[in-house]
Write a structure and sequence with these properties.
By secondary structure, the chain is of the alpha+beta class. About 25% of the residues lie in helices and about 30% in strands. It is elongated, with a radius of gyration of 29 Å.
Length: about 150
Amino acid sequence: MHLVPRGVTRRGRSGVPEPPWVWGPAEVNEWIRAAYPSKRRHAHAARKGAEIVTRLRIVVEGADAQRLRVLTTDAVESIGLTMTGPPGGRDGHRVVGVFRRSLGHARVHVSLRFNPPIHVSSVKRIVERVGGQVHIVGVSTRRGRAPLPPRSA
């Protein structure tokens, strides 16, 4: 005859942890969270919008800065935006472009700042359009998420 101690089921342990008879506060809190999981939304699980880009930097090998400026302006205008010079000027959608030649290499650095930020797919279209005409060495972006209003109850 096989004896089973009191309080232990024959099939093994249940999925719920044992109650905290001799545990400290940390173990008690862990047991409560395991036995009674919360259904509410946590603060870190806030709503997130589409991925956006605020800045784009393209490094081009061996290109003329003036020709690159024309190519970049055409690419930006193909997505419906207009290029402006340094900051200052009119309100609304702006793309501020800065073109700098590299001192050590035969490269041109193009920095574009979008105000307001644009969608990632628009940035891909700009890079593809410029990359079809010149040799791009590197591309970097500053990305973020578009804020969404909180859900109404």
